[in-house]
From TrEMBL, chains A, B:
GO MF terms held by the record: hydrolase activity; metal ion binding; RNA endonuclease activity
UniProt name for this protein: CRISPR-associated endoribonuclease Cas2
EC number, UniProt record: 3.1.-.-
EC class of the enzyme, as a word: hydrolase
Organism listed in the record: Acetivibrio thermocellus AD2
Lineage: Bacteria, Bacillati, Bacillota, Clostridia, Eubacteriales
Cofactor(s), names only, from the UniProt record: Mg(2+)
CDD domains with a match to the protein in the record: Cas2_I_II_III
Quaternary structure and partners: Homodimer, forms a heterotetramer with a Cas1 homodimer.
Domain of life: Bacteria
Length: 87, 87
């Protein structure tokens, strides 16, 4: 599945969420990750994020897609192509 | 169509992009908007964003979906339900 993760976390927790995100997905913009994940890794990612954030203060949204067939992605300004990443 | 817009703009331009985003979409998180748009309004939104950002410094990503049938949205932490918004 394809996953987009966007987050907004307090300063101290921000770098922790960034670290978890980088483990599973490609960084594409400040506080935005995307990438292909197995169902198992998606659950692991959510578990790890859950342990890092403050539920009252922070917010993490996951958009999960079974297919990207109906999707287009357009960028204005700086473009980080996640396909160019070497993990 | 359904659109997710995520942006990262320099401080002075940030509030300008925020203002444009609010005009067309629902704010769901710091630097993240989503919502239904006509093709015409999607083009207007992109045009307005283009006029506000610095192409060398800022980045705005649009994910555009013809259908949300294959999509799930999950939130950890604070949740702003865009369906509760009154525009």
């Amino acid at each position: 599945m394809f996953v987009i993760m966007v987050y907004d976390a307090g300063e101290r927790r921000n770098s922790k969420v960034l670290k978890v995100g980088r483990k599973y997905l490609h960084w594409v913009q400040n506080s935005v990750f995307e990438g292909e994940l197995t169902e198992a890794n998606y659950h692991k990612l959510k578990e790890e994020v859950r342990r890092k954030v403050d539920n009252e203060e922070d917010s993490v949204i996951f958009y999960k897609f079974r297919t990207m067939k109906y999707t287009e992605r357009e960028v204005i300004g700086k473009n980080v192509d996640p396909n160019n990443f070497i993990l």
